């Protein structure tokens, strides 16, 4: 049924429909609405689940590691500093091969204290072994959350469903909320490949010597590889029930494009508007949306970009000393192609600064008029700051 | 596409107002989008919220900087915030203020409509005298000024989305619809 829902509410509906059994969370803006709704559902009987209130995000993930090890389907949501506090256990949950699903609402890290959108929090966790999926709108975040459980449980890796603060988490828009029966057809009950059982006690995650550790790591790497192929199956199954699919990437008008904008999250949506405008003016522009970040869909990226002359990568994040994170990944995906497009990197919209069509057009024009990409990403839309007075 | 910017203060229900209107306009057949922009998350602090409506899926995911219309829930904001910045020529400025308030000449290029949503909310026992809940009255005034959504759709949306006292809220919306003065 089509309803006007907030992005956070769309996530919560997916979690309810996924018949999650244990939810744990610690409140942090802008993620709070997700678990507020889930807490209501758990209290009022809308979900047959336990809601664990904990004293920190670290405890939250520790609780879910326990619950998932005991065979329960679990979910949490967090943002920014909360995700950073989970860092140790992000590694643990992936290493222990637990298919936990998390909604991560992209929020800037402090200081300066800032509640607004910025992808650096989730991207800083790229090496923890979590699958990461970045969402563009309310429908996609509901659908992706449902897909996340299926994918996680197939490959035994945790999945992070990532959504922008406010521009998605707090945005109301029409969303088709599926019925329970359809969701049940897509997502069967969780059937754990291993589970702690008091009747047959055993220990998990013991000391692993050098003679075995490397093979265990190799298994995680293989599971990530599998996730690439498995994701296509999950999307095909989802499409068969719901009639929607998104792909690990989406290439819009890339076939004949000379310059392709590369975007993720809600910026993609605004970039679609600019693309319509550029095309109507006769510009040979294209757009590549990156939805899956881990595993990185390098082959899909190459297939979308190889014909273009230039790619302009928009990063709402920064790795200090190396520039935008998506730009680095795109460069790495292309670097062994003989006739690769030039990659121009741009940093925009940090800490919730608005990424308007004008900002995106500036990025497009800088790319069009640039001969050689600068080594690092170019910061877009900066104000002049006088360091003598400290005033903008 | 029509873009409307709402100005209010934290605790006045500005965000809820845009959400309620988004529900009502969706029921009336529009594709809708609404979201807030918080400054500091505090009672009394200035808040902006945005509402977009269109006959197709809305792709813009940016703040509204060139609104077709603006709605102001709290007159004291006029002293500190340029509520008409970027307002398109001929756009409406809907103010919550006393009937005696004249908007003439105050906003160059904008047309002014005034409704005493605060007084209406108090007389309908919505909230308290010091903290009246004005957003359903503002919905009624909005429907009059913008000529959308139709009143029956607005009433249905209030019935579905307002958890307490839908009857008094509907009465406040109807009263505000009739009370808007144009200057």
Give a summary of the structure in a few sentences.
The complex is a heterodimer of chains A (392) and B (183). Chain A is α/β, with parallel strands linked by helices and 392 residues long.
* CATH topology group of chain B: Pyruvate-ferredoxin Oxidoreductase, domain 3
- CATH fold name of the largest domain in chain A: Rossmann fold
Structural class of chain B: alpha/beta
- The overall pLDDT average of chain B reads 93
Output the helix-strand order of chain B.
Answer: EHEEEEEHHHHE
Q: What would you say the CATH architecture of the largest domain in chain A is?
A: 3-Layer(aba) Sandwich
The total count of helices of chain B amounts to: 5
Low-confidence stretches of chain A: none
Describe it.
- The complex is a heterodimer of chains A (392) and B (183).
- Chain A is an alpha/beta fold.
- Chain A has helices at 7-17, 32-44, 57-69, 80-95, 120-123, 138-155, 180-186, 210-242, 267-280, 298-305, 325-334, 357-369; strands spanning 2-6, 22-25, 50-53, 74-78, 101-106, 131-134, 159-164, 172-176, 249-252, 259-263, 285-290, 292-294, 310-315, 342-347, 378-379.
- Chain A folds into two domains: 2-242, Rossmann fold, CATH 3.40.50.970; 249-379, Rossmann fold, CATH 3.40.50.920.
- In chain A, the strands form three sheets. Chain A has a seven-stranded mixed sheet with strand order 3-2-4-5-7-6-12, sandwiched between helices. A six-stranded mixed sheet of chain A has the order 9-11-10-13-14-15, sandwiched between helices.
- In chain A, helix 3 runs parallel beside helix 4 (80-95), helix 7 packs across helix 8 (210-242) and helix 10 crosses helix 11 (325-334).
- Chain A is globular and about 70 Å long.
- Chain B is an alpha/beta fold and 183 residues long.
- In chain B, 32% of the residues lie in helices and 22% in strands.
- Chain B has one domain: 3-Layer(aba) Sandwich (Pyruvate-ferredoxin Oxidoreductase, domain 3), CATH 3.40.920.
- Chains A and B meet through strand 8 and helix 9 of A and helix 1 and strand 2 of B.
């Amino acid at each position: 049924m089509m309803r006007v829902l907030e992005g956070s509410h769309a996530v919560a509906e997916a979690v309810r429909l996924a018949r999650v059994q244990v939810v744990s969370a610690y409140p942090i803006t802008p993620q709070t609405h997700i678990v507020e709704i889930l807490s209501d559902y758990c209290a009022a009987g809308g979900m047959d689940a336990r809601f664990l209130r904990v004293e920190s995000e670290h405890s939250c993930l520790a609780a879910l590691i326990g619950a998932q090890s005991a065979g329960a389907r679990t979910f949490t949501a967090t943002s920014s500093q909360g995700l950073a506090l989970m860092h140790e256990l992000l590694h643990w949950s992936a290493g222990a091969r637990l298919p936990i699903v998390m909604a991560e609402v992209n929020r800037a890290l402090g200081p300066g204290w800032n509640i607004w959108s910025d992808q650096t929090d989730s991207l800083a966790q790229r090496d923890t072994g979590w699958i990461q999926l970045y969402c563009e709108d309310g429908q996609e975040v509901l659908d992706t959350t449902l897909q996340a459980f299926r994918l996680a449980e197939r490959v035994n890796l945790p999945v992070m469903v990532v959504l922008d603060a406010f521009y998605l988490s707090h945005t109301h828009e029409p969303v088709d909320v599926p019925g329970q029966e359809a969701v049940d057809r897509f997502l069967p009950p969780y059937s754990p490949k291993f589970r702690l059982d008091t009747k047959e006690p055993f220990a998990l995650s013991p000391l692993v010597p050098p003679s075995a550790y490397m093979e265990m790591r190799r298994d995680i790497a293989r599971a990530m590889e599998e996730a690439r192929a498995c994701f296509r199956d999950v999307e095909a199954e989802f499409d068969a029930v719901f009639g929607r699919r998104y792909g690990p990437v989406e290439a819009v008008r890339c076939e004949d494009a000379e310059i392709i904008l590369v975007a993720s999250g809600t910026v993609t949506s605004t970039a679609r508007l600019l693309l319509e405008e550029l095309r109507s003016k006769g510009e040979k522009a294209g757009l590549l949306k990156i939805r899956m970040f881990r595993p990185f869909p390098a082959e899909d990226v190459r297939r979308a970009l190889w014909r273009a002359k230039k790619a302009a990568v928009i990063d709402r994040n920064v790795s200090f000393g190396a520039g935008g994170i998506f730009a680095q990944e795109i460069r790495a995906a292309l670097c062994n192609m003989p006739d690769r497009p030039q990659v121009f990197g741009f940093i925009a919209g940090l800490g919730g600064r608005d990424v308007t069509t004008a900002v995106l057009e500036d990025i497009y024009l800088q790319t069009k008029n640039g001969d050689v990409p600068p080594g690092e990403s170019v910061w877009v839309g900066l104000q002049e700051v006088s360091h003598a007075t400290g005033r903008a | 596409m029509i873009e409307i910017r709402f100005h209010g203060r934290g605790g006045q229900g500005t965000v809820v107002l845009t959400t309620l209107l988004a529900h009502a306009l969706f029921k009336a057949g529009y594709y809708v989008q609404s979201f807030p922009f918080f400054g500091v998350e505090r009672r009394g602090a200035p808040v902006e919220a945005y509402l977009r409506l269109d006959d197709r899926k809305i792709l813009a995911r940016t703040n509204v900087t060139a609104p077709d219309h603006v709605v102001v829930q709290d007159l004291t904001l006029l002293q500190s915030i340029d509520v008409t910045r970027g307002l398109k020529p001929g756009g409406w400025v809907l103010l919550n203020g006393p009937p005696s308030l004249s908007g003439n000449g105050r906003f160059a290029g904008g047309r002014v409509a005034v409704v005493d949503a605060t007084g209406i909310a108090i007389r309908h026992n919505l909230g308290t005298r010091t903290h009246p809940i004005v957003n359903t009255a503002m919905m009624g005034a909005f429907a009059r000024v913008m000529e959308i959504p139709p009143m029956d759709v607005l009433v249905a949306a209030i019935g579905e989305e307002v958890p307490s006292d839908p009857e008094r809220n509907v009465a406040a919306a109807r009263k505000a619809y009739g009370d808007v003065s144009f200057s």
